[in-house]
Write a structure and sequence with these properties.
This protein is mostly helical and about 100 residues long. About 55% of the residues lie in helices and about 5% in strands. α1 crosses α4 and α2 packs antiparallel against α4. It is globular.
């Protein structure tokens, strides 16, 4: 279920982040990592705390989206690939340079 939900959520977050400055994208990645690091197990095992899984999932999806936009070649996770080129689905494709917006 996680993989299928990410398949839908990451492109949506990419669209939301597409015109943001690079510094904002990097901040998004850092915030996401600070949530996923201590709470990532919630995605696998669940949590009695209301909203914990939603917070961890959104952090993962946003972090993947931000990484897809600032990393040359995009990002691949659980067999799925995202990058600045919305039509790209292959990590070995000829990728354009990432979009850095100041």
């Amino acid at each position: 279920m996680l993989v299928e939900t990410l398949r839908l959520a990451v492109p949506r977050h990419i669209e939301e982040l597409l015109q943001r400055p690079t510094a904002d994208l990097l901040d998004t990645g850092l915030r996401s990592a600070s949530i996923i690091g201590p709470k990532g197990d919630v995605l696998q095992f669940g949590s009695p705390k209301h909203g914990a899984a939603e917070e961890a999932f959104n952090a993962l999806a946003q972090g993947l989206a931000a990484a897809a936009l600032v990393t040359w070649g995009g990002v691949t996770f659980a067999g799925m690939h995202w990058c600045a080129d919305p039509g790209c689905s292959d990590r070995d494709a000829d990728h354009p340079e990432p979009k850095f917006i100041s």
